[in-house]
C-alpha cells in the first residue's frame, strides 16, 4: 500500500501537519468533496451505483482515505458502492481493502447490510472451502484468505440480520475437517462474538459433540480459540458442556505433565500458558463435577459406578496437574516467564478454592504454603494476587489454622504503600479472624486506622466493628473498641454502627455492661471537642442507663446533664433530637435537673425543626397532662431490641 497510495500518504501528512482543528476540518471536507466527485464522475454508472471509470488503484486509494477519515471521527455517509465493488473482486488486494472498509464503515443495523450478505456468503463458500471440492494449494490459500476476511467482517459488523443469516455457515466452517487451522481459529472467535450478541444462537447439548471434536485437534492455536468459545458458552449454560471435562483435563495433562507442545507455542519454556489458563477457567464452572457421586441408590448403582470410574480417572489426573503446577512454580528472573507462570498458578489456586472442601488436603496445604511465600515478596502485583487468593482459600472449612501462620506477614502488608495491597490485606484479616486472634487483629486495625487513607477508612471502620462484635469475649472490650473508632475516625462511623452499640448494651442487662457503657461514654463526652457521634451515643445511653452511675462521684444526674448540654450549641438537628429525649429522662429521674431542662424545652417550642419542636412540646406538657406514675412509666428505659438473625452491619458491608 505504501508504494501504491502516494496520494493517501500525502493526505495523512497534510492532516498531521495541520496547525489546528479548523485547518484539519477544512482539509478533510475538501478531500471528502473531491472523493465524492470522483465516485460520481463519468457519463454512466454501474447498476450498483459505482463508477466503472475508476482504476483499481484509484478506487483503493479513495476508499483508504474514507477509512482514515472515519477513524479520525468524521462522518462518512457515501462510498458504499465502491466498497462493495472491491469486496466482490477476485483480487486479494482489492478484497482486503473492501472488507476493512466494510468492517469500519458499516454497522449491523444499516440498510446496506442486505446487499453485502450474499457477497460474504459467497466468500465463505468459495471453491476449496469446506462445502466445495478441493482445489490447488495456491487457490486454496487464496480462498482461505477470503474466508478469513469474511469471518472477521462478520464478527466486526455483528448485526442481528447478519447473525441470523450467516451463523450456520460459520458453524459449518468451524466443525468441518476441510477447514484449515487458521480459518478454524477465526471461525471460533467469530462464533464467540455472535453468541455474545445473540446468546440463544446455539443449542448447547447439540453443539457440545462438535466442540468435543475440536478439542481433539492437535493444533494448539485451534484449541486456544476453541477454549475461548467454550468458556463463553459455558458461562451462560454450564450444564450443557459438562461432558467436555475429560477432554479439557486430558489437554491439561498433556501440557503440564508431558510438556508436549510445539516450539512456536512455548513461552519462555512454558507450554502455551494462555491455553492452560483457559482450561483451568473452564473447570472452575464445575465444582460439583470434581466430586465422586455417592452410591446410595441401588437402582442407579451401575450408572454411578461408571460415572465414578470416569470421574475418578480425570480427578486423579487433575490432582496431579494441580500438584505439579503448585510445586514447580517459582519466582523467575525473567519478568515475562514469571508473569505467565503466576497467571497459571493463580488460576490453579482458584480452581482449588472452587473445588472447596472436596479438594485433596495436600493441594490445599500446598496452595496455602505457596501463597504465604508470595505475600512476602517485594513485587506488589504478586503480593496483591497472593493476598486476594489467600482470602478466598481461607474461607474453605479447615483452612483457618493454615492461614493463621501468615498473620504477621499480612499485618505487615496492612502498612504497604499501595492502597490496593492494603485493601486485600484488610479483606484477608477479616476472613482469618476468630476468637483466638480477634483482639490482636482488631487492635492492629485500630492502630492502622490513624494513618489510613480516606478511601479505605469507612471499610476499615465497618469491618472492625463487625469483628469486635462477632468475636468479643468481653462486651466491655467491644464498647471500648467502638469508642476508639469514634474518637479516631468519627466521620466514618455510620449510624448503623452506633445503633448496634445501643442494641447490644440494651439487650445485656446482666452484669455491669450497662453501667460500664454509661460511665465510659460520660467520660468520652466530657471534652468540649468530641465527635458528634460520641455525643449521640452518650446521650442515648445516659438517658437510658445513667441512673446506674448517678451515685458515683462526678457522675450525678446534674453532672450528666451539664456534660451533654455543653455540646448543644454545636450539635446538628438529629443530635439535638436525641439530647432532648435524654434531658426528658434525666429530669424525670433527678429533681435537680428539672430547672435546668425546663428552659431548654421552652426555647425549643418555637424551633424551625419540626422534630425538635414536637419533642419539646410533648415532653413539657407530659408532666402537666399525666400523673407522676404515668410519666414515669412513659419515660422508663427502652425494652430489649429484637434479636435479628443477621447483623445490620454485615448487610451494610455487602451493600
From TrEMBL:
User: Entry's InterPro entries?
Assistant: Adaptor_Complx_Large_Subunit, ARM-like, ARM-type_fold, Clathrin/coatomer_adapt-like_N
Instruction: Please give the superkingdom of this protein's source.
Output: Eukaryota
**Signal peptide residue numbers:** none
Cellular localization per UniProt? Endomembrane system
SUPFAM superfamilies, per the entry: ARM repeat (SSF48371)
Pfam families of this UniProt entry?
Adaptin_N
* Record keywords: Membrane, Protein transport, Transport
Could you tell me which residue ranges the Clathrin/coatomer adaptor adaptin-like N-terminal domain spans? 26-622
Q: What's an example GO BP annotation here?
A: intracellular protein transport
Where does it sit, as one GO cellular component term? Answer: endomembrane system
Predominant location: membrane
Q: Does the keyword Protein transport apply?
A: yes
What is the protein name for this chain? Clathrin/coatomer adaptor adaptin-like N-terminal domain-containing protein
Which species does this protein come from? Attheya septentrionalis
